[in-house]
Amino acid sequence: MRLADFDYELPPELIAQRPAPQRTASRLLHLDSRSGAIEDLRFPDIVTRLDAGDLLVVNDTRVIKARLRGRKDSGGEVEVLVERVLDARRALAQVRASKTPKAGRRIAFAGGLEAEVVGRQGEFFELRFLGEDVLDALAAHGEVPLPPYISHAADPGDEARYQTVYAREPGAVAAPTAGLHFDEALLAAIRSRGVEIASLTLHVGAGTFQPVRSEDVTGHVMHSERYIVPQATVEAVASARARKGRVIAAGTTALRALESAASDGALRAGEGETRLFILPGYAFRVVGRLVTNFHLPKSTLFMLACAFGGTANVRRAYAHAIEQRYRLFSYGDAMLIDQ
Predict the structure, then answer these.
(1) Top-level CATH class of 3-63+159-338?
(2) Contact at 8 Å (CB) between 269 and 230?
(3) I need a surface site. Which of 103, 255, 311, 333 has the fewest CB within 10 A?
(4) Whether the predicted pLDDT of 60 surpasses 90
């Protein structure tokens, strides 16, 4: 498979820069990959496309204020994007500076916060925060890490809307964006239809925006992401299957966590690291339906969508969405893909 197989023409004006006025006000493109049928809906219509006995699995990760701006002790400006919190004092981060900071150098941030560069782990720097818990420091001094294609600086509106209503476990540096369309009323309507809702956690890393640089896409290596699948969710999947219900992943992150936890064929509870790269030809073990946003050309997430719905089907659906002026990417509209 070649990188060009997953390219499409992107009109930049369709990249959503702000969320819809209400979470559920987005559009929903329904793709039935078996028939190839495409249907234009509003997102609340998803309730009518789910059946009693189905299971919706959501990712309850919570986006942290992972971006910090400061200065090295030598005076140069620095931008830090935390990739992963390692423990109460340490984090892995991307560090942008005019000169690469060396081990032992300190970075000063707003409010008297300081961090010391411990060393490097590949493209990331290990930072040790001085005198303050990492998560507390980020909450007090950090910025919401909006995706690179959103042009405005994060503001209080983003703090609320770049977060799902069911976010619980802090650790993500990018939102599981398919979940941004659900509000409490819609979740209640889904439950009232007889659909069960279960949760898991996958802490989305900055690698979700990493471009694929290999022309042969099979040569791409995914960044590792931490996931936790609770026993209750494993049992909910088993119950849904027993009653002939479908398992619906609310987002590519929920899908990757489920499929990673079933890598040997049986879904198992537990936690681990995943580098799962899903390409066309992948045999899905758990998930039968996918709610997802639209994804960047040549991205691993677009490749995942093609794997799930069929490359020809998904490319045709994207062409339809662009023709119909759907809003794209994190703050944009959504798809429901039936396998």
Answers:
(1) alpha beta
(2) yes
(3) 103
(4) yes
